[in-house]
Amino acid sequence: MTDATFTGESPKRHGSLTASDARTKRRNASEKRFRIYGLAAIGAGLFFLVVLLSAIISNGIGAFQQTFIQVPVYLDPATLDKNGNRDPADLAKVSTFGYTPLIQTGLYQLVRDAGIETDYEDAGDMKALISASAAAKVRDWTLAHPDRIGDTVEFEILASSRVDGYLKGRVTRESIAEDRNIDAGHLDLTDALRESGALHKSFNAEFIFGSDASESRAEQAGLGVSMLGSFFMMLVVLFLALPIGVAASIYLEEFASQNKFTDFIEVNISNLAAVPSIVFGILGLAAFIQFAHLPQSAPIVGGLVLTLMTLPTIIISTRASLKAVPPSIRDAALGVGASKMQAVFHHVLPLAMPGILTGTIIGLAQALGETAPLLLIGMVGYIATNYPDGLVSGFMSPNSAMPAQIYEWAKRADPAYYERAWGGIIILLVFLLIMNVIAIVLRRKFERRW
Amino acid sequence: MDATNAKGNVPMYDAPMRKAAVDVNENKISAKDVQVYYGETHAIKDVSVDILDKTVTAFIGPSGCGKSTFLRCLNRMNDTIDSCRVEGLIALDGEDIYDKRVDPVQLRAKVGMVFQKPNPFPKSIYDNVAYGPRIHGLARNKAELDEIVERALRRGAIWNEVKDRLDSPGTGLSGGQQQRLCIARAVATEPEVLLMDEPCSALDPIATAQVEELIDELRENYSVVIVTHSMQQAARVSQKTAFFHLGNLVEYGETSQIFTNPVDPRTESYITGRIG
Amino acid sequence: MPVVWLILIVLVLAVLGFIAGRMRVTTAGGARPHSLPNYYGWNVAMKVMVPAFLALVIWLLVQPFVVDGKVTGMIDEAAIPEGSTLGLVMSDVRRVADGLDLAVSRGLMTADSASSIRTESTDVRDLLANAGVALGSNVSPQVLEAAQAYRGMNHTGNLWMTVVVLALALGGLAWAVRETTLEFRARNAVEGGVRILLLAAASIAILTTIGIVLSLIGNTVRFFDLYSVSKFFGSFTWSPSFGGGSELGIWPLLWGTFYISIIALIVAVPIGLFAAVYLSEYASPRMRAWAKPLLEVLAGIPTIVYGLFALLTVGPLLLTVFGRDGLGWMQAGTAVMTAGVVMGIMLIPFVSSLSDDIINAVPQSLRDGSYGLGATHSETIKQVILPAALPGIVGAILLAASRAIGETMIVVMGAGAAARLSLNPFDAMTTVTAKIVSQLTGDADFASPEALVAFALGMTLFVMTLGLNIFALYIVRKYREQYD
Q: Keyword Transmembrane helix: yes or no (chain C) (predicted)?
């Protein structure tokens, strides 16, 4: 201790503890400021969350309601069944063009009967009020009930998207000034019909279960078919990613010896977890469609791409769950003469299962919302117009997926589709919410602490 | 400085060569009926103790007896633990340190602390020592700061070892050097009391000897409180010793008296190795 | 024989083998078998299935190449029409062959006539149209001949595949049943097999990486055959035109990517970092329990939602402030700023939860040391904790940057489509990812440079993000080791 050459000098006496000096005041002020920055940052994050959610809900809730008009349609035998024999083959020959005038006449009659004054002389002038899909609906119903031809039947007919938008406040008298599809007179008529009770808004199940429609019929578009597309993809992901992910994790966590090959696998997994999703789309396009000639736009291809994308997530969470099982369990099993394989499959795996399932559900939720890779393999929105016929076609025939359908709607020119896109997001988020709640419940219920 | 003076010597005979006896006897910290709770656990019960200036006071006792907890109450380090609650009176120079108006930051500038494990910041040696003076604004310019740093490092008895590499990281030093650096860092803020929580428990015997020697030197300027689980160490470095057991202060007195002639049977059992 | 039937037959053989293997040891009597009876069953089933399915998969992968190669050899250079390529002719051949199959299966023609018809005697195009396969032009004799050869070879190939697969399955069955004796260590054999399966599952990660690299490299090389490397990396103009004569310089896209990512990081890093600091250092456990998951909700929201938010909410909002009616800096709702801000919001939880982990990894002893010297909480954070955590935080920011570079939907919907080199953040620009989507979802011919450029862009993107990730993970790992 030779360098302790310092000779005693009384340390500088500090002031009283209770009176804080100017410097301490400054320091405490800066402390307070710093805390406020932190709070503000959290506030900003939560504020964005609130804005985002309220934008989604306020813009999307309208999609669940749709405007309908109750139109009595006279199913005129003179046009629908010229031969008068109700032969299904003959009836089917009448296309939707045969039905359109009937509906327009029905609407015209409705307006007349309700005593509404209007400048429109001709039944055809009012067609702007009803959706172009109405004829197909009436035709389908008529073909199913040929005996009703000759009767006047009340149909709940979809109003056109402009009328729907008018009721929802999206379309105004000013905004239609340049619109070729509708004019102010139609809006007067809409008001009058609404007053008379023939026109009303009601819950729109078609939006949830229906299929996508052409670019000109926003009122008819639904998410149902693409929802099925997503469902089939999730089946593929679940049945491939879960077993493969669990098997890979068991190998890496329980059996792999420390060598270059194992390291290489680990490096691959951690890098794949961070590869942009669009790159997986390129892989899907090149490997599954170009190379393996799998059908384009098919949920099976989408499912394969999403499987490869979610595998790293599932492997990482599965390994964490396996790691959380204490070694004493393995030792106990080995101690009574079980083989390593038996110890893992009989004891470790069941104990890790809740964690594995939680991770898998989170991975599935991530896959469900993924859009970019699906666009590259052709799972775009306008394909989802028909329901798949069965299980095989569910996997193999072209379809879309919920997020791709939403993207398609957002791209369309008609603002009526924006409401659909927001509404689609509500449905998508409800699915994600359910999945996450299941994951959280699983974790809470089965979480075990050693 | 030789090792014999700490053995059984009472401070009054050791110090008067340089300091007036009055100074030595002055009360620095007085604690009265201190209770500490961790949630429901009553960790410290009814502890009253007077800690003298320019004296090394050792807290000894079996693990979990509350000696470290009590030490951390003296500069309100327990404030950082949410579930911890302190009752009773602890006064520094007659001022209640748990008074609402007291700023713990100012308090800790006066009552420095050295921890069990050396914890140099991942900065240079210079920056480690300059940290305290900088935040408290003790130096007006670079030259003054340099001077403070040098003085602290000298007082930490590590100047000669590091003076050529003040810019290298503090984490690169050996364990004993790191601990002396931490002591230098603590004295750089010119505290009046230095709390040491088992400062040698992570060190090898040679480093321990160096730190102990340093503690003995620090007594000239500071009131030093040291928690230790080693009775030999308490006997070597301290003038006063407090024995804690199960959260109670069992016995407090001159170190020589505690070790040679304990009053309480529990103290005796501990010292002779029957409890611990 | 359809592949499905083949698979079913092998599965049935496996079930039979399982029963046979089990029976052999349970009915043998005498000494106790080495393993539990089920293991003998599994051993047989495994030896039936594994070689047979392996052969099936390999055959299915290899046969198309062999057949393609042979049929391609049949088409002379001269037969390729003006303006067409061998690849296009081959896809015609495949379509005709598929059409013939379809026609046979619908009963429009017999199998014999399908392989013997000639273009001179039959209107193949009309025939195939009836079968539901529409062809763009009349079928040339050579294409028809090639298609017939293609069908023939596939037919023979499938026949041989069936034979080989069934032979392997039966051989495996016989071998495994024969080796099933009481002394046979069936458990060890089965476990060895399972182990190999586990290893195979783990190797899929490697296969995926190889797949990504191969599909990127293969098509990138094709692109650079059609378009010069120096122009791709040297040109500052991006103007694809599908008629040919496109300028495909990557710089405007890289600039757009970079600019948007920077804005995103400017939004996300301060908010995320301060939020992480507050949550890990100040927040009460109750507040932490609420605020942390709520912030992480932002990370669980799909990017399509953010894309829509950018397109329909943030874009119009910015336009009212910075647009023609406001400051006049902005032309349309889609702009670098729109995409950048929204992407920043998306990255907040990413930055905050990574930084939170990293701040929590800073040892408590450093905090104690600082408090013990009389530092305030914020001084401790600013001067001790953050510098100590800096490498980890830099790693987290790099990971966030790699996320931003690879993000697709937000820029596709929020950034606009114009590729330009501009400094105004309120201009529409585009990014590498957005152009990958637009070049591959457009109507461009797949073999044209306008479509293939997407793979070169993908390659660039892959290399950039991979580099960032490896570097970031390296930094974070080093950081963690320091405090372990």
A: yes
CA A318 – CA A351 distance, rounded (Å)? 12
For residue A406, CA distances in Å to A115, A427, B176, C411 come to 42, 10, 65, 16
- From the list C285, C365, C383, the residue facing B131 with the nearest CB is C383
The H or E element spanning position B244 is: strand B240-245
pLDDT in tens, A181-237: 788 888 888 888 888 888 888 888 888 888 877 777 888 888 888 899 999 999 999
Instruction: Tell me: pLDDT of B12 over 60.
Output: no
Q: In chain C, how many domains are there?
A: 3
Mean pLDDT to the nearest integer, A94-103: 84
C247, β-bridge pairs: C239
Residue C325 tokens, joined: 């009616």
Per-window interface: A 249-308 vs B, CB < 8 A: none
Domains in chain B with CATH codes: 4-120+193-271 (3.40.50.300)
Residues C133 and C10 in one domain: yes
Residue with tokens 């910075």, as numbered in its chain: C322
Kindly state whether residue C231 falls inside one of the protein's structural domains.
Answer: no
Residue of A nearest to B218 (CA): A8
Work out the average pLDDT over A293-304.
87
d(CA C185, CA C339): 63
Give start and end residues of each alpha helix (H) in B168-254.
175-188, 205-218, 231-237
Between CA C311 and CA C412 the distance in angstroms is 9
What parts of chain C have a pLDDT lower than 50?
A: none
Place of tokens 């029905």: A106
Domains of chain A: 66-202 (no CATH), 224-446 (1.10.3720.10)
Amino acid B34 reads V
Interface contact B102, partner C, CB < 8 A: no
Using CB atoms, which residue from B113, B121, B186 is nearest to C384? B121
Q: What is the DSSP string of C110-151?
A: -HHHHHH--TTTS-HHHHHHHHT---SSPPPHHHHHHHHHHH
Q: How far is CA A351 from the centre of its chain?
A: 33
- A32 contacts chain B (CB < 8 A): no
Confidence of residue B16 (pLDDT cuts 50, 70, 90): very low
Q: What ipTM, to 2 d.p.?
A: 0.88
Listed residue (A189, A176, A211, A212) closest to A415, CA to CA: A176
Residue B232 to chain C, least CA–CA distance (Å):
26
Residues of B in contact with A13 (CB under 8 A): 192
Cβ burial of C43 (10 Å; 0-12, 13-18, 19+) is buried
- Are C195 and A272 in contact (CB < 8 Å)? no
CATH code (residue C335): 1.10.3720.10
What's the CA gap between A69 and C481, in Å, rounded?
Answer: 69
Indicate yes or no: CB of A425 within 8 angstroms of CB of C297: no
- Mark whether C190 and C104 lie in a shared domain: no
Tens of pLDDT, residues B189-213: 888 899 999 888 888 888 888 889 8
If you write DSSP's letter for every residue of A97-135 in order, what string do you get? HHHHHHHHHHHHHHHHHTT---S--SGGGGGGGB-TTHH
Distance CA C61, CA A287 (A): 12
B87-115 average pLDDT score: 88
CA distance B148 to B130: 8
CA of residue C112 relative to chain centroid, distance: 43
Q: Give the dihedral sign, CA A345/A347/A348/A352.
A: positive
Point out the residue among A12, A17, A21 whose CB comes nearest to the CB of B97: A17
Cα–Cα distance measured from residue B72 to residue B78, given in angstroms and rounded to the nearest whole number: 6
Among B116, B6, B23, CA closest to B71: B116
* DSSP class per residue in B212-235: HHHHHHHTTTSEEEEE-S-HHHHH
Query: Residue C82: what pLDDT?
Result: 65
